[in-house]
UniProtKB/TrEMBL annotation:
GO cellular component assignments: endoplasmic reticulum; membrane
Main localization (coarse): membrane
Range of residues in the leader sequence: none
Assigned protein family: Belongs to the membrane-bound acyltransferase family.
Protein's cellular compartments: Membrane
Membrane topology note: Multi-pass membrane protein
Name under which the protein is recorded: Glycerol uptake protein
A single GO BP: GPI anchor biosynthetic process
Organism: Rhodotorula diobovata
Taxonomy of the source species: Eukaryota, Fungi, Dikarya, Basidiomycota, Pucciniomycotina
Length: 297
């Protein structure tokens, strides 16, 4: 199914032509009996609203997709049961006290994994229902953040249907690839306001755009088609991937977990010494009174 361009949709329809067509210069056609059937020339059949091949509608493919959904659901239950990272970050400011830098980083990382899973599950369930009904909508969560070292690739795979909408109606009208920074700034400003009217979400959106710039610069300085065969290139790409994951963690922790002040405190812990942040006074006092108390903040 093809769509007209954005500006073509805004243009008014052309006026009807008053000049006779070449076919009307001949003898007048014989009047036929009026057809009372509705005009269905502009009706798009339901199967045209598909983005991938109909192979996904085969019974074997549907069973495989349902099994993958159940596996993701079990993985979510196991993560929430074994890793109380959501309870830690929801316990209030200062939950990182008494943790090492590596533990604080892992809390942030696994919180983002939980966010990815909790968005994947309802969208994949609704997509499975649509597939059972014969409709093939786009897959929203294509790749996990732990399986994507590219910031640009990460955002192309996160909420993909919304990403396609943003590219069509915001990114391309603002200039697209000819003005990528301005276009991305417009897209993520809209996405931040779409989530909620909060300053920290605007900081998140602008931070995402800022964190994309190093990868864009690296692609221009050391492009893959020129240096990809060099033995050092894979190590440089791995280092850049670690840097991108840390930047994505920071942006999402600011927007959806701890805010700007909390992210500043977290980075002060992660960039500090190996011992991490000192425990809070209240926790130290409770340990003195009860040495067997658990050291969970």
């Amino acid at each position: 199914m093809t769509y007209p361009s954005f500006w073509a949709q805004l243009a008014p329809p052309p006026p009807p032509s008053s000049s006779p067509s070449p076919a009307s210069s001949g003898p007048a056609p014989v009047e036929e009996e009026e057809d009372t059937a509705p005009d269905t020339s502009d009706v798009v059949p339901p199967r045209a609203h598909t983005y991938r091949s109909a192979d996904e509608l085969q019974p074997r493919a549907l069973a495989s997709y349902a099994a993958r959904f159940i596996a993701c659901l079990v993985a979510m239950e196991l993560v929430l049961h074994a890793l109380p990272v959501v309870a830690l970050k929801d316990s209030g400011r200062g939950w990182w006290r008494g943790m090492t830098a590596a533990e604080v980083a892992m809390v942030g990382f696994w919180n983002l994994i939980v966010v990815w899973l909790k968005l994947l599950l309802p969208w994949r369930l609704f997509r499975l229902w649509a597939l059972l009904d014969g409709v093939v909508p786009p897959e929203n969560m294509v790749r996990c953040m732990a399986n994507n070292y590219s910031t640009l690739g990460f955002w192309r795979s996160w909420h993909r249907s919304f990403n396609m909408w943003g590219i069509r109606y915001i990114y391309i009208p603002l200039g697209g690839a000819s003005r990528p920074v301005v276009s991305m700034l417009g897209v993520f400003t809209f996405v931040a306001l779409w989530h909620d009217l909060r300053l920290r979400l605007l900081v998140w959106g602008w931070g995402v755009v800022l964190f994309v710039l190093p990868e864009m610069a690296a692609r221009r300085v050391v492009p893959y088609n020129k240096f990809g065969s060099r033995p050092w290139y894979r190590h440089l790409a791995a280092l850049g991937g670690v840097f991108n994951v840390l930047l994505m963690m920071t942006a999402n922790l600011v927007g959806f977990v701890v805010g700007v002040d909390g992210a500043t405190a977290l980075w002060s812990v992660m960039l500090g010494d190996w011992a991490g942040a000192p425990p809070s006074p209240s926790l130290s006092l409770s340990r003195e009174r009860n040495p067997r108390a658990r050291s969970v903040v």
